[in-house]
């Protein structure tokens, strides 16, 4: 467990500063955009994320899973990744440029400039996800952490300079300029991923894939993962589209700030889950269970403490950091904090299931969550606006969590108490030798 703990601690040592820097960056960006601009920005990034989610097909998790357990050779995994990049980036580009997809764009933003932005960001994010997966297989988390830190610093420095130049009226910062600079920053980030990939991963590309031994096993594994991730994403983002539709971009901007600020808590769980995935995917059931229960307790206790602290100071902090324009973010933020506890645990529960190849369970849980989201969003958002959206989201997170929890208790025979509240013995356990 020492190796796993070491990688988690090293990741935290980089990611915590990255998170703090990202918050600072978000402050400058939000103040530049205002509430309405924040809403437009949120719609674009939600669309970029859903495009990446759909056309990545869960390939990144498949690479980590098969690369860690060696059931498919890395040379064949590299070929699968190359085919996905080569097919889907041109396909998406041609489709968006040649067709009108008004639903993808806020009103008055369906122009060639914003289409090219959407395509470019999609392509870079797709490539980055695949390269990161191969680096994770090699457990080179130090590289991942350094690039994440560089990206956070680049964003913060850039948006600070823009905020300053705009405040002294040297330049007038428009959303077009912000989008162009965001694309440049991501391009530099991608260049770092490419360099790191070639320095870390042995290139043994083998384009001759076996349908029986490579293609079918790979896509049989990732298909339920892919469906589960898409459903989970919709569970996270459906409320954004509905708030925009019923309440407009200004209310959406206020709501999105509450969502984003609450979801900083989830970065903690994502760090643990991201590092654990290659370790849990190794073929050792007893070790997998030990790793999972130990870090489940650590995750729950830490998230609960953060939620309590933010529930006390969150309202004042939001106004202090982002301005009085976002005063109304406080109520949905506090409601969302309840849901963050459930979804933080669900993230680790899902990683456990993915590592065992039990992807259908995560699919069922995410489907239950999405049904809850759609039902309660439709019932609550038209009448209660962003407060209703926050309530609906927290309820759906609870239902998703319960499905995963019941499976772990009944089917995996994991003791309920072993998943919650850290023990004194955990501190000794996580530092013992493997």
Describe what this molecule looks like in 3D.
It is built from eleven helices and no strands. The chain has helices spanning 2-56, 59-69, 74-98, 112-137, 141-167, 175-200, 211-280, 285-322, 330-355, 359-410, 424-429. The N and C termini lie close together (5 Å).
Helix content: over 70%
Query: In total, how many domains does the architecture comprise?
Result: 1
Main sheet properties: none
* Tally of separate helices: 11
> SS-based structural class?
mainly alpha
Average pLDDT metric: 83
Name the helix and strand elements from N-terminus to C-terminus, one letter apiece.
HHHHHHHHHHH
User: Could you tell me the number of beta strands?
Assistant: 0
Task: State which percent range the strand residues make up.
Answer: under 5%
Rg result:
21 Å
User: Kindly, what is the distance between the CA atoms of the first and last residues, rounded to a whole number of angstroms?
Assistant: 5 Å
Instruction: Give the low-pLDDT segments.
Output: none
Q: Describe the global form.
A: globular
């Amino acid at each position: 467990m020492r190796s796993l703990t070491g990688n988690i601690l090293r990741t935290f040592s980089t990611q915590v500063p990255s998170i703090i820097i990202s918050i600072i960056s978000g402050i400058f960006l939000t103040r530049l955009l205002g509430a309405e601009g924040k809403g437009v920005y949120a719609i674009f990034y939600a669309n970029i994320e859903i495009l990446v989610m759909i056309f990545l097909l869960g390939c990144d998790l498949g690479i980590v899973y098969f690369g860690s357990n060696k059931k498919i050779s890395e040379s064949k995994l590299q070929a699968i990744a190359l085919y996905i990049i080569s097919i889907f980036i041109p396909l998406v580009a041609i489709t968006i440029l040649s067709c009108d997809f008004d639903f993808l764009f806020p009103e008055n933003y369906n122009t060639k400039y914003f289409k090219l932005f959407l395509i470019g960001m999609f392509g870079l994010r797709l490539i980055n996800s695949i390269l990161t997966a191969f680096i994770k297989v090699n457990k080179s988390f130090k590289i991942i952490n350094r690039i994440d830190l560089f990206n956070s610093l680049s964003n913060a420095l850039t948006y600070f300079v823009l905020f300053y130049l705009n405040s002294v009226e040297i330049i007038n910062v428009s959303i077009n300029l912000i989008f162009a600079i965001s694309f440049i920053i991501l391009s530099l980030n991608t260049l770092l991923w490419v360099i790191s990939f070639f320095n870390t991963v042995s290139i043994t590309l083998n384009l001759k894939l076996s349908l029986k031994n490579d293609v079918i096993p790979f896509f049989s594994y990732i298909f339920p993962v892919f469906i589960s991730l898409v459903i989970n994403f919709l569970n996270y983002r459906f409320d954004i589209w509905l708030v925009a539709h019923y309440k407009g971009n200004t209310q959406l901007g206020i709501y999105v700030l509450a969502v984003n600020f609450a979801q900083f808590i989830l970065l903690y769980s994502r760090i643990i889950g991201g590092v654990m995935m290659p370790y849990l995917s190794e073929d050792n059931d007893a070790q997998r269970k030990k790793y999972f229960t130990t870090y489940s307790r650590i995750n729950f206790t830490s998230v609960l403490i953060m939620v309590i602290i933010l529930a006390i100071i969150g309202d004042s902090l939001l106004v202090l950091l982002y301005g009085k324009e976002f005063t109304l973010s406080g109520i949905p933020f506090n409601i969302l904090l309840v849901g963050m506890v459930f979804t933080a645990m669900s993230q680790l529960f899902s990683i456990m299931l993915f590592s065992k190849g039990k992807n259908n369970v995560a699919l069922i849980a995410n489907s239950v969550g999405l049904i809850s989201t759609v039902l309660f969003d439709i019932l609550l958002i038209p009448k209660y606006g962003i407060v209703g959206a926050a309530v609906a989201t927290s309820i759906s997170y609870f239902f998703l969590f319960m499905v995963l929890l019941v499976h772990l208790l009944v089917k995996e025979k994991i003791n309920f108490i072993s998943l919650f509240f850290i023990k004194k013995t955990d501190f000794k356990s996580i530092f013992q030798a493997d």
